[in-house]
Structure formats: C-alpha cells, structure tokens
C-alpha cells in the first residue's frame, strides 16, 4: 500500500494565496532536477498573472524552493524544490563552477595527460591505462577522463588510434583504443576520425544537447570559438 504524501507544514492551503503557492510548489517539484522557468510557471492560467513573482518570492522565503542560474545565461533562472539537485544540463556538470567553465582545471589535467604519454613515447597507452590513472589519482570519472582525452585530440596534441596487434600495438588487444602523441608516424594502427575530427563538434560528448538557444550552444562553446579563430 503506497504512503500518502504528507502536506508541507509551511503551506496549510487554508487561504487563496497559500492554495496558489501549493499549486506552484507542486508544479516545480514535478520538474525535479530540471526545475521550472517563470515562463513555464505562468502557463498555469488558474493563477492571476500578477501574483507569480510574489508567490515565488514567498516560496523562496519559506525555504521551499531555490533559484539556479543556467550555465550560459545567469539571468535565466530555473526554480527547483529544495530537495532536488540541479541537472547537469543546468550547471554544465563537473567542469563548471557557479556556471563558469573551470578552464584552469581542464588545462592542468590535459597537461598531465601529455606528461603520461611523454613517459611512454615509444609505445601507445591504452584507454584503460589512462582511465585507471585519472580515476585513482585525480578522482575523475571514466567519462571525465574520456572528455579530457577528446579535447586533447581536438587540440591536435595527441591522437587516438585503434590497435591491430602489430609492432607498437603488440601488447594490446586488436581493436583496443589507444593514445599517443602527435608528430609521430601512426605505425600500423588505424587512425580514427577524418576531416570532421578537426571540428570540435565532431567529438563533443554534449553534441546531442547543443542547440543555438540552448543551455549548451556554439556561441558559448570555448572550443568552437577557438576553432573559428584558428
């Protein structure tokens, strides 16, 4: 038997204003980590348009909701219920601090990747080895490590190759993803990608979320702007 949801003690719903507040809070809660914009909230035509700002401020004052700025537009607010954490699409994920890309951290991690490959200059380094180091030493996730490696490929500092099990790939499984510094012959490995790989969008892990007016867009992408300047 499912439990009945307990009424919020801060909202009794006994007067019209609190009834509107409760309806607004329920709408915001239904959005969970994505939050709701003021535009979305105003879609409820049962609440007088002039009341929305006052109702939102009242819910904030009672500690029931919070404001979260979007990654690329701090003036664009999403309202979340206090019990939810914002989705990565709002905050930008682990690489962002207060909506700003942590460039120094990314560049530091990229430099460490290059140092590892410098120490193994005469042989390729597998993706598993790279992930093993960064997950253990830098406390990154596997996906974060892959993003750092992809950015280095975009910067043309390293190359991603697939092993065929011969020569410098003798110690790796056929088809295994490996990395090496650029400026060297690729041996018998099969270089991955093509002309499109020079465009940042070609290897971007967030390409599916990128739209002209979205949270992630070409106008706010550091790598896309660098590519255009180049």
UniProtKB/TrEMBL annotation:
Subcellular location: Nucleus
Top-level division of the source organism's lineage: Eukaryota
Cell membrane in keyword set: no
Membrane-spanning ranges: none
Disordered: annotated span: 1-21
Keywords of the record: DNA-directed RNA polymerase, Nucleus, Transcription
Pfam families, per database record: RNA_pol_Rpc34
Gene Ontology biological process terms in this record: transcription by RNA polymerase III
Protein's UniProt keywords contain Transcription: yes
Family affiliation: Belongs to the eukaryotic RPC34/RPC39 RNA polymerase subunit family.
Entries under PANTHER family matching the protein: RNA POLYMERASE III DNA DIRECTED , 39KD SUBUNIT-RELATED
Protein name listed in UniProt: DNA-directed RNA polymerase III subunit RPC6
Organism: Capsella rubella
